[in-house]
Automatic annotation (TrEMBL):
Catalysed reactions, as listed in the record: L,L-cystathionine + H2O = L-homocysteine + pyruvate + NH4(+)
Gene: metC
Protein name in UniProt: Cystathionine beta-lyase
Keywords, sorted A to Z: Lyase, Pyridoxal phosphate
Lyase found in the keyword field: yes
Source species taxonomy: Bacteria, Pseudomonadati, Pseudomonadota, Alphaproteobacteria, Rhodospirillales
A Pfam family reported for this protein in Swiss-Prot or TrEMBL: Cys_Met_Meta_PP
Originating species: Azospirillum oleiclasticum
Length: 391
């Protein structure tokens, strides 16, 4: 349906029951070899390397269904699915860089993205410069004639800075750079990157799109101009997604809207409660009034997800450990975006070069899952009790 609202698109995009014996969900194709009945059919397929089923790695009806769903939801031209969020990130960066290029990457970027830029792209002659995520249009002073990519992530990983995406994108595109953005936190529902000048929107679909902590998936949604470079690079690198993970991602997407609303609601309840605690110095959540990024968030975003952070007042490590080691509902793990609540101590100062993180207290990242927020608050309250007892 043309001009359908996002909730409707989530339910209907990427599936055609009447083409599959009336079955509601697209079938799962486990495929490596594709057979062609004639030489002519084989040659015709080779002339269309990015369309149709010609080899399992290059795409199947299952991967096309997922890609069509995400592209329709986010408003991009086409999408490319890959086996993890990091695979999507590294593939897209590889597609738009070559030896001698200069790349600008936000200093608040996801840690593995930083390591790929410095350790892998750097080894192949691509220079990465990290910039202050709050630079806005001032990024113009960092652009060079050989700057080919400007990479954004908003809000920033661990510290949740909100970038002025339209200002950065306008300056970057005027200089001929390709604008890439990690949009995992907001998902296509809560931030519309193509409306703000982004060329490729990257998602660790492992998080909210899958939503059930049971599959690894990455996807890059592209403008028409950027689709072929990304798809070609993914094919060359063998960056494909498995059929069962694609199925789980498609299943998860159908409930994305209702899940995100609950994640948002619970996270704001927890954030407000934490902000009033004496153990907490400040809460890092752009959806809360008073947060440094709130004005930009309110201008550009359509909602907030369940991931945020709380900066605690300085405490000895044993006291923090006493709090975190015995949580009942909050698991301790690195991923997020599933139905379960998570808590994680982080150290953002270890991965900054353009900006500084000088806070002396511990920073804990929280993901509000789908449990009752009152129960989550009780779990946190008991954790703070353990912390005080250990002082």
């Amino acid at each position: 349906m043309k001009n359908a609202k996002p909730d409707t698109t989530l339910v209907h995009a990427g599936r055609n029951p009447h083409a599959n014996h009336g079955i509601v969900n697209p079938p799962v194709y486990h495929c490596s070899t594709v057979l062609f009945p004639t030489v002519q059919a084989l040659e015709d397929a080779d002339k269309r390397p990015y369309d149709g089923v010609r080899y399992g790695r290059a795409g199947t009806p299952t991967s096309f269904a997922f890609e069509d769903s995400v592209a329709a939801l986010e408003g991009g031209h086409r999408a490319v699915s890959m086996g993890s969020g990091l695979s999507a990130i590294t593939t897209v960066l590889t597609a738009f860089t070559k030896a001698g290029d200069h790349v600008l990457v936000t200093d608040s970027v996801y840690g593995p993205t930083r390591r790929f830029c410095t350790d892998v792209l750097g080894a192949y002659g691509v220079e990465t410069e990290f910039y202050d995520p709050l630079i806005g249009g001032g990024i113009a002073r960092l652009l060079r004639p050989n700057t080919t990519v400007v990479y954004l992530e908003s809000p920033g990983s661990l510290t949740f800075e909100v970038q002025d995406v339209p200002a950065i994108a306008a300056v970057a595109k005027a200089a001929g750079a390709t604008v890439l953005m990690d949009n995992t936190w907001a998902t296509p529902l809560f931030f519309r990157p193509f409306d703000h000048g982004v060329d490729v929107s990257i998602h660790a679909a492992t998080k909210y799109l899958v939503g059930h902590a049971d599959a690894m998936m990455g996807v890059a949604v592209c403008t028409e101009e950027c689709f072929v470079p990304v798809k070609r690079t993914a094919n060359i690198l063998g960056a494909c997604a498995g059929p069962d993970d694609l199925y789980l991602a498609l299943r998860g997407m159908r409930t994305l809207s209702v899940r995100l609303k609950r994640h948002q609601e619970s996270a704001l309840i927890l954030a407000d409660w934490l902000a009033a605690r004496p153990e907490v110095a400040r809460v890092l959540h752009p959806g809360r009034p008073g947060d440094p990024g709130h004005a930009l968030w309110k201008r550009d975003f359509l909602g907030a997800s369940g991931l945020f952070a709380a900066l605690l007042h300085p405490v000895p490590k044993p006291a923090l450990t006493a709090m975190l080691d015995h949580m009942e509902l909050f698991g301790m793990g690195y991923s997020w975006g599933g139905f379960e609540s998570l808590i994680l101590p982080t150290k953002p100062g270890h991965a900054r070069t353009a900006t500084r993180w000088d806070e002396s207290g511990p920073l804990i990242r929280l993901h509000a899952g789908l449990e009752d927020p009152d129960d989550l608050i009780r779990d946190l309250e008991r954790g703070f009790d353990r912390m005080r007892a250990a002082l």
